[in-house]
Amino acid sequence: MRIPIAKPALGEEEKKSVMQVLDSGMIACGSVVEELEGEFASYCQVKHGVATTSGTSALCVALKCLGVSGEDRVLTTPFSFIATANSILYCAAKPVFADIEEDSFNLDPVEVEKKLSEDDKITTLLLVHLYGLPCDMKPLLKLAREYQLHLVEDCAQAHGALYDGKKVGSFGDAGCFSFYPTKNMATGEGGLIVSDDDDFVDRSRLYINHGQKIRYQHDVLGFNYRLTNLQAALGLEQLKKLNGFNEVRIKNASFLTDGLSDLSWLKTPAVPPGSKHVFHQYTVRVADRDSFTTYLSDNGIGYGIHYPSTICSQPYYQSLGYDGSYPVAEQAASEVVSLPVHPMLTREELDYIVDTIRIYRR
Ligand SMILES: Cc1ncc(COP(=O)(O)O)c(C=O)c1O
Question: Hey, whose CA ends up nearest to atom 8 of ligand 1?
Answer without folding.
Answer: 55
